[in-house]
Structures are given as C-alpha cells and as structure tokens.
Amino acid sequence: MLIALFPGDGIGPEIVAQAKRVLDALAIPGIRYEEGLVGGAAYKAVGHPLPPETLELAKRADAILFGAVGDPDCDSLERHLRPEQAILGLRKELGLFSNLRPAKVFPELADASALKQEVASAIDLLIVRETNGDVYFGEKGMRRTPEGLREGYDIMSYNEEQVRRIAHQGFQAARARRGKLCSVDKANVLETSQLWRDVVIEVSADYPDVALSHMYVDNAAMQLVRNPGQFDVIVTGNLFGDILSDQASMCVGSIGMLASATLNDSNQGLYEPIHGSAPDIAGQGKANPLATVLSAGMMLRYSLNLPEQADRIEAAVAKALADGARSFDLGGTMNTVEMGDAVLAALN
Ligand code: IPM
Ligand code: MG
C-alpha cells in the first residue's frame, strides 16, 4: 500500500508531520510512503504547482494524504501557476469527484462552537460535495465589455451525468447513516441548479428508503446556524459545498477539526483537512493537527479498508480532547507537536 504525502504550503508540513507520526505508531504492515511537492512549495522548487512527478506519484498511490496549498507570495502569478491549481488538478486528473466532509461535535468541544451549546451539540452531519465540475472548472477569463469595461467571467455548468453520480453518493451515504438527504441548490435562480434538482429527484427513485428534501443555498446557510441538528447528509455542488463546509466547521468548534475525503470511482482517495494553509501562523507551531490526523483516519477507512485502525485514530483524538488537549484555535496553549504527542499518548 503506497501513500503519497503532499504537505504543501504554510502549515501543511507541520500538520502532515503529526498525522504521519500517528500513522507510524499504528505500525500498519505493508504501508509505505513517498513524499511529493505540491502548491507554492512546488512552484518555488520546480516552477509548477503540480509537477509531472507529483501527478505520476498521485496516480500510482493507493491514497494521498494532503496538507494544504496556498501562498500569498504566489497571488500575482498567472492562475494556472497558482498553488490552488495543485488540488484542483489532482481532483480533476484523478477523477476525485466525491468530497465527503463530516461535521460532528466532540462533546468536549461543544463550548468551542460559535453556536449555543445546546444547538451545537446536535451537529452530526456529512456534506457530500461534488468536486469535478461547477463554476470551478467551467470556462473562465477576463474580457472587455463593448463599453470597454474589464469583465471577469466563470461559467457554471453541470451535466446530468455529473449530477447523477454525486447524487448516488449522497443517497448511499444517507442510507448508511440516518436516512435523510438534503440537496442544496439555487434552483430559484440558476439553470444549473434546476438540472441538479431534476436529476436528484430522478435518482431518488432508486432510494425509496431515503427521505429527500431540497433547500436553497441561502436558506441552508441560515439553517446550519439556526438548527444544524436537522441535517443528516447534505449533497451539493462544488461552490456551495466549499462555502457550507467552512461554515459547518465553525459550528462544530474550529476549522482545525474538520477532515475530508475525496474519492473517485475506484475508491482511490485524497485526504485533507478542510482548512487552508494559514500562512499567518505557518512555522509557529500554532496549527491544530487534528483535522489532518482525522483525515488520515478517513484514509484508513475508505481507501485502505482498515476500519479498526481508523476507529483507533478517532478514539485517540476523542480521548486526547477528553484529557484536555487544546490547541490555540480551541482556546488552549498546546502547540502542533504537543497536540500530536497527546494523540500518541491516547493511542497507547
Ligand atoms: C477546499 C479549498 C479549495 C477549494 C481551494 C484551496 C482551491 O478551499 O478544499 O475547500 O476551493 O475547493
Ligand atoms: Mg474551502
């Protein structure tokens, strides 16, 4: 089993190092690691955010453990050279279309949520976000209007096959959980969303046991704060899912806690915290590694078929929190390595 490690930019190397320590402690037979350059780090070293060697390693690997990409030094580069193209390119090239972003409150952290404790403690939801289409991958550019004004554009589109396959992912996830699926769109305004809604309804015929509802994205943003306990699985497009998953993270307590998996048709997966590279705190040991540690757990569960080991990681994170481990984002004073130490101590 080959794991590609792509630490990337900012806090990426610090958090991936802690997840790797936890994986090493599990001493999984036959697992091996190769590291690759991505993002701004890759651009600075070899002139491209997703170098061919990195892509080749990603394709060969059973799973990818990814830190974060994004570097303010690269903000003025042409778009195809920006760090973010590494993650977008990996999602596209490997067909990683099904992005699973669970959000659940650890009881110990209910007081860290931006919400009232009784509202926050009910959160146990999964966002299933499509990551191969939408406005992210449509035609985009800069042009001039007839009056000579600069105009930026990004075309939003989904074809029915793209919607169908992510809808199936949503229904199957709901079936394995509490049987409720909420499809989030903006069908009152967007044609893309009208097709989305029509296709989700078509697919629902295969899942009579799942209760399907539809919600406009603006209302979903509001409901996530008002009554997040109502959600089981949310299925949505690339852009809405990007936004709602960041929002869900703060409802849970900290963006430093949310893990994610992005799978393709063959269960090859990319695993990453949902947060970014946080350049403002990079290199200071302030980053919370738990989202990455939990992402490594998802990797063991979904791509390597090691559910017991995944359970051990999750239990160790819960125990570390119960024992009082708190990084800065959680109102504590423990640095990145100390948080890793706490998980390792809880593992044994
Ligand atoms: C995410 C990130 C990415 C996205 C960025 C880094 C391109 O925000 O994974 O949520 O927008 O998908
Ligand atoms: Mg995001």
Automatic annotation (TrEMBL):
Catalyzed chemical reaction(s): (2R,3S)-3-isopropylmalate + NAD(+) = 4-methyl-2-oxopentanoate + CO2 + NADH
Cellular component, GO annotation: cytosol
Record carries keyword Methyltransferase: no
Residues at which substrate binds: R91, R101, R129, D218
Localization terms from the record: Cytoplasm
Domain Isopropylmalate dehydrogenase-like: 2-343
Domain of life per record: Bacteria
Positions bound to NAD(+): G276, S277, A278, P279, D280, I281, A282, G283, Q284, G285, K286, A287, N288
UniProt-annotated site: Important for catalysis, residues: Y136, K186
Binding residue positions for Mg(2+): D218, D242, D246
Reported cofactor(s): Mn(2+); Mg(2+)
Main location per the UniProt record: cytoplasm
GO biological-process terms attached to the record: L-leucine biosynthetic process
Pathway this chain belongs to: Amino-acid biosynthesis; L-leucine biosynthesis; L-leucine from 3-methyl-2-oxobutanoate: step 3/4
Key word Kinase present: no
A GO term, aspect molecular function: magnesium ion binding
Free-text cofactor note: Binds 1 Mg(2+) or Mn(2+) ion per subunit.
Keyword terms of this UniProt record: Amino-acid biosynthesis, Branched-chain amino acid biosynthesis, Cytoplasm, Leucine biosynthesis, Magnesium, Manganese, Metal-binding, NAD, Oxidoreductase
InterPro entries attached to this UniProt entry: IsoCit/isopropylmalate_DH_CS, IsoPropMal-DH-like_dom, Isopropylmalate_DH
EC number, UniProt record: 1.1.1.85
Annotated function: Catalyzes the oxidation of 3-carboxy-2-hydroxy-4-methylpentanoate (3-isopropylmalate) to 3-carboxy-4-methyl-2-oxopentanoate. The product decarboxylates to 4-methyl-2 oxopentanoate.
Binding partners and assembly: Homodimer.
Family label: Belongs to the isocitrate and isopropylmalate dehydrogenases family. LeuB type 1 subfamily.
Protein name, entry field: 3-isopropylmalate dehydrogenase
Source organism: Sphingobium indicum (strain DSM 16413 / CCM 7287 / MTCC 6362 / UT26 / NBRC 101211 / UT26S)
Lineage: Bacteria, Pseudomonadati, Pseudomonadota, Alphaproteobacteria, Sphingomonadales
Gene for this chain: leuB
